[in-house]
């Protein structure tokens, strides 16, 4: 069993209030969890207007498959939402 935990730090564009930010973040969390069946949550910077930190964990039989899933998730987030992921930290 392999577990890959990642922390994604991102900038949100077009976020004029915390309500706008939470709307985008909750949408990301729901869709990624539903599509990839991973554990995902906002873990930091909840009160910052244009930043969010999301933690996600993937469990799979292969480390390579875990990394591929994380890569797909990052690509999907950046292509479907007004965000820029500027830092990716792998948590051990």
Automatic annotation (TrEMBL):
Coiled coil segments of this chain: none
Alphabetical list of Gene3D superfamilies matching this protein: TT1725-like
Any single Pfam family the record assigns to this protein: DUF503
InterPro entries with a match to the protein in the record: DUF503, TT1725-like_sf
SUPFAM superfamilies listed in its UniProt record: Hypothetical protein TT1725
Protein name: Ylxp-like protein
């Amino acid at each position: 069993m392999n577990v890959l935990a990642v922390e994604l730090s991102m900038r949100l564009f077009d976020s004029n209030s915390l309500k706008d930010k939470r709307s985008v973040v909750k949408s990301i969390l729901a869709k990624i969890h539903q599509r990839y069946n991973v554990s995902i949550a906002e873990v930091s910077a909840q009160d910052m207007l244009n930043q969010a930190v999301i933690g996600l964990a993937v469990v799979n039989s292969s480390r390579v498959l875990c990394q591929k899933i994380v890569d797909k998730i990052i690509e999907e987030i950046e292509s479907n939402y007004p965000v820029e992921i500027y830092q990716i930290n792998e948590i051990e």
